[in-house]
Amino acid sequence: MDSVNFNGPISSVSNWNTWVPPELKGRAPYRPMIHLERELKAPEWDWVWNSDQPIVQYFNEPEKNNISPERAAQAWYDQMVPLRQQKGKKLVGPAISSDENGKNWLADFMNRVSDQPPDFLGLHYYGTDGNAAIRYLEEMHSRYPQPIVVSEIASTDRNVGSVYNFTVQLANFMDNADWIFEYGFFGCMRNLADGFVSPDAQLMQADGHFTELMWKLQNEQPMVPP
After folding, report:
1. Residue 196 burial by CB count (10 A; 0-12/13-18/19+): exposed, middle or buried?
2. CA dist list (Å): 153 to 19, 48, 49
3. In what order do the strands lie in the sheet with 90-92?
4. Are the C-beta atoms of 16 and 35 separated by less than 8 Å?
5. In principle, which of 39, 73, 143, 167 could form an S-S bond with 112, CB 3.0–4.6 Å?
6. Reduced to 3 states, what is the DSSP secondary structure of residue 33?
7. Beta strand 55-58 with 180-185: parallel, antiparallel or unpaired?
8. φ and ψ at 177, to 5 degrees?
9. Closest to 73 in 3D by CA, of 24, 114, 121, 113
10. Shortest CA distance to 214 belongs to which of 21, 12, 4?
11. pLDDT digits (tens, 9 = 90+) for 34-62
């Protein structure tokens, strides 16, 4: 964490946890996440409720984790709306994947919470075509009025040049879109989360040092191709 340039374009830190990483040391806001339904119970929920962080994320790809829009909406009214009303939190809606299942799930959820909608729209995107990624973001922006939080985005291409081009194109686009509140490229971790995201999109090496791509992301604005 001490290698992060907190004086550059990085505006916040997030992962899949409800608790603030102690190594952050208050150098940037943290975005607690209700990752799955288990975080709606103690002790995880208590940490969220008592957190001093201003923005809370709600559910990570619920359509892939057997969380129905109906159950998600019920918990939204039971717990997330009181969190906003009583604690003054801003809420990021469920971050869905970019396929049709994700879009259909979100449409159902947003209809169910129409009188208490999220403050931010949560999205993910993985793919190889930067133009397709931009079209998706623009499509979702046209459907919903909320500012967008792209909490996960990355190239799945196995060509390093294509990965860099995708990242540069999307970072520069999102930096210039006033309707995108913030975004996070996946992922800054020592080991690959799975075989889906391109190894060349990794932002951290196995030894804990940042990759060249991470250095570019946190130091270049606008980013330039290598």
Report:
1. exposed
2. 22, 25, 28
3. 33-34, 55-58, 90-92
4. yes
5. 73
6. strand
7. unpaired
8. -95, 110
9. 113
10. 4
11. 999 999 999 999 999 999 999 999 999 99
Q: Residue 116 has which token pair?
A: 């208490």
In the block, tokens 């006033």 appear at 178
Q: Does residue 43 have a cis peptide bond before it, meaning omega lies within 30 degrees of 0?
A: yes
Query: What is the C-alpha to C-alpha distance for residues 116 and 112, in angstroms, rounded to an integer?
Result: 9
Which helix (H) or strand (E) element contains residue 8?
A: none
The residue ranking higher by pLDDT, 172 or 195, is 172
Q: How many helices (H) and strands (E) does the chain have?
A: 7, 6
- Give the chain's end-to-end CA distance (angstroms, integer): 25
Closest to 61 in 3D by CA, of 31, 16, 20: 16
Predicted pLDDT of residue 68: 98
Q: Which three-class secondary structure state does DSSP give residue 103?
A: helix
Q: Which residue has the tokens 């109906």?
A: 70
Give all strands (DSSP E) within the chain, no chain letters.
33-34, 55-58, 90-92, 121-127, 148-155, 180-185
Does the model's pTM come out above 0.85? Answer: yes
Can you tell me the distance from the alpha carbon of 54 to that of 187, in angstroms, rounded to the nearest whole number?
23
Q: Can you tell me the mean pLDDT for 10-17?
A: 94
Where is 76: in which H helix or E strand? Answer: none
Percent of the chain with pLDDT over 90: 93
Q: Which residue has the tokens 């994320």?
A: 57
